[in-house]
TrEMBL record:
CDD domains: NAT_SF
An example molecular function term from Gene Ontology annotations: protein-N-terminal-alanine acetyltransferase activity
Keywords from the named record: Transferase
PROSITE patterns in the cross-refs: GNAT
Organism expressing this protein natively: Micromonospora krabiensis
Residues of the N-acetyltransferase domain: 11-176, 200-366
Name of protein: Protein N-acetyltransferase, RimJ/RimL family
Amino acid sequence: MTPEVIESHGVRLRPFRPEDAADVTVGCADPLTQRFLPGLPTPYTEADARRWITEGAPAAWAAGGAAYAIADPATDRLLGTVGLSHADAYRGQAEIGYWVMPAARGRGVAVAATRALSGYALTTGTVRLELLTREENTASQRVALAAGFRFEGVRRSAGPSRDGGRHDLLAWVRVADDPAGPTARRLPDLPDGRLTDGVVTLRRLAPEDADVMYELHSRPEVVANQAPPVPPERAAVERRCRVSESGWLLGEIARMLILDAATGAPAGSCGLSVSDPRAGEGTIGYALLPDWRGRGYASRAVRLIAGWAFGPAGFARLAAGTVPENVASHRVLERVGFRREGLLRGRLPGPAGTRADDLVFGLLPEEFADEGRRDGLGEPR
């Protein structure tokens, strides 16, 4: 590939120029850029920028890749960079990567540049493009999805860290015959970032929720209803909160915090996992802190999830597994319209190597609608 200027999707991709050095310095010295591109020098100086422009970018081209400046078509001012690396002519593949200036973030620059370069590459001989992201780099995962890349799997310990350690990378792939446009998501974002009925509010779990999640899921009565019934490690809870958005984007599980709508106080947690994507089935789970139990909050939360699941998320069926002795949870599900479907003997891991039964409930869209009409146009009881 030669340094041909690409004008597409509202951005200009052009070769670097000496006058870009100051902007390259600002972009590469930015803490977020440094965090997710550990191969950059630190501290990053203007000398490093000039070296990239005069040596690094030409070397990328010479190796069969690409190194473009992303520029504003109106001003030609640098907005970021996008390029291709690890090109393999025999396999017809390459890896695409980018960074965006801090002042240009949130404007769709990365998506536009990724679409522009990937579209050009896939029509000029490249067959397969990979985009690799850290699990917590959800901004890049959103770029991948918006640019038509599909999640393919986890590359274990594929990325080096600045401290000498290793971390996993998520592989997103686009091939030449993939349809144009964004990749469809199994789990769409919540409307306006939340679900609410005026009493209970649900929002996506976030890194700052680790304290309340650890408190909730370490309680003996909550642990007893988990499989296996083992208290969580603090590090595992922190990681769950840290990568919650990634699990959502991957279409695996939508984890949410239950809040009191009036005060914003955390009341518990809930979630919807994609248990059978081909069948359109999801599985619901939930737990409340003691002060909020017996007030209908669990039923309200489950009803909100079900409405979102059968509506924007397009699920065809919801299931919930419970410990047979958890009568309070059974009542929650039945209030929303779930029906008992059967006892799966020895399905779950129990304490000390034993097995536990799983009492399964199910809900169909028409049953949820009927329950809502009986319940006052969908208002919680």
